[in-house]
Amino acid sequence: MNPSELPSWKRWLPAVPCLCLGAGRSGITSTISIGRVVVTTFSLNACGDSVAPRGFCNELHTNRLNTFFTIRSRPPHSCPGSESVFDLISSPLVSIVVPFRDQGDYLIQAAHSLRSQTFPCWECLLVDDNSQAYARSCAQWLVRTDPRFRLLSIVDKLHAPGPWCARNVGIASARASLIAFLDADDLWHPCKLERQLPLHLDHAIEISVTAYHRFVDSSHQLIETRCPPTGLSYRQLLRGNVIPLSTVVVQRSWLEDPFRPERHEDYGLWLRLFERMPPPAYGLIREPLMAYRLHSTSLSAQRGRSIVAVERLFRRHAPSAWNRSLLVARWALARGCGFLVARMNRRLAPSQLLPEAFAASLSAQGMAASASGRPPHVLP
Predict the structure, then answer these.
(1) Are 280 and 274 in contact (CB under 8 A)?
(2) Which of 26, 46, 138, 272 has CB atoms 3.0–4.6 Å from 366's, for a disulfide?
(3) Are 310 and 264 in contact (CB under 8 A)?
(4) Residue 354 and residue 99: Cα distance in Å, rounded?
(5) Which of 84, 20, 17, 26 is nearest to 54 (CA)?
(6) What local confidence, expressed as pLDDT, does residue 37 receive?
C-alpha cells in the first residue's frame, strides 16, 4: 500500500515488524480485537516454555510514541500449573480518563464507543468513585477483556463531592503525554481520536475540542448540535464555559495544577489555563465527535446550585464584589440565552434521532457479573 493512502496516524512511524517465537508445549493462544486491528496473543505453559502462534504479523503502523509489544511471564517461583500470559503492552499515545459512580449501563456504552475507535493506540483509566457492585463488575469485565482498560479506585471515600478527585487520580496514573476526558454517560464518534490527534501531533496544538451533539437519554432524540468558538481567550471564558469536557484532548504538561474540589471543576480548570500568559495553543474540529446525554441524574442537570457555584468560582478571578456580580450576571444571561435558543430549535427543527455512529453504542447493555464471571453483553 502506498504510504500516502494510509490514514495520517498510520504514517507517523514504520510498520511493526513481524514477531514469531519458538513453539512450546501445551500452550494457549487467544485473539484480541483492538479497534479494527486483530492481535493474537500467546501464553506460557506451566513449565515456562514460550508458546506462539505459527506466525504473528500485522500491518499496524505505530504512532509517534513507538507502540511496542513486550512479554510478561510468571516469575520462576510461580506455583506449578499457574497461568502465565503474554500481555500486549503498548505505549499509548493518549490516556482517556473515565470517572464513574454507579451507572454501569452507561459505562458499558461509553466503553463500547471507545472500543469502536478507528485509532487503537490508547489506554482508558476507569476510576471508580465508590460505586456499587454492579457498576464495578462491569468495569472489571472491561479490564479482563481488553488490556487497554485499567481500573483504579479512590482511597479517600469522604472527599468533596464531584468527579474532580476521580479525574485527578486518572491523570496521575496516565502513561501518555496526551490526556482525554470522557464522562461515563457520554459517547464518542468512532473516528474521534483519528481526526483529533493530528492537531496535537502535526500542528503543536496543546488543547483541542470538537463540536458535539446533545440528545435525550430516554428517546435518543437529537436536541441540538453545538460547536465551540474557533478562537478562545480568557475573557471569552469568563462569559461562560464553552469547552465541552468530553471532547477535550490536552497536553499533560498543562495539568500540573489539575481539577480542584469545586462545582464546575472543569470550568475552573479552563479559566486557570487560559489566564496564563501565554495560554495553551487551542484547536477546534467543527465536526461533532461527541454525544452529550441529557438525563435527570447528571450533575449538569442540577441547575439550581449553578449560580451560587459560579459566584464562588469567580471570587479568585474578580476579587471586587461589584465586578464579580457583573461577571455572574453576564454568565447567567449567556446561559439563559443558550437555553432559550436550544428550546426554540427543539420546537422548530424537525425531530431527528442520534446519528447511527453514536447510536450503535447505545445498544450495548451491561449485565451484572454472576459467580461464573458472566460478562456484560453486546460488546465487540
Answers:
(1) yes
(2) 138
(3) yes
(4) 24
(5) 20
(6) 35
Question: How would DSSP label each residue in 122-181?
Answer: EEEEEEESS--HHHHHHHHHHHHH-TTEEEEE-S-TTPPSSTHHHHHHHHHH--SSEEEE
Q: Is the peptide bond before 278 cis (omega within 30 degrees of 0)?
A: yes
- Give SS3 for 106: helix
The residue type of 231 is G
Q: By the 8 A CB rule, do 376 and 364 touch?
A: yes
Q: Is residue 373 assigned to a domain?
A: no
pLDDT digits (tens, 9 = 90+) for 272-318: 999 999 999 999 999 999 999 998 765 554 555 677 878 888 888 87
158 shares a domain with 36: no
- The pTM for the full model equals 0.74
d(CA 188, CA 357): 9
Q: Residues 40, 76: one domain?
A: yes
Residues 6+ apart with CB under 8 A from 339: none
Q: Helix H segments across the chain?
A: 104-115, 133-145, 164-173, 192-203, 234-237, 265-275, 306-313, 321-348, 356-362
The reply to whether 41 falls in a domain is yes
The total of structural domains in the chain comes to 3
Question: Which residues, 6 or more positions from 337, have their beta carbon under 8 angstroms from its beta carbon?
Answer: none
Contact predicate 170/127, CB 8 Å: yes
Residue 326 domain-assigned (yes or no): yes
| SS3 (DSSP) at 329 | helix
For 4, the grid coordinates are 500516502
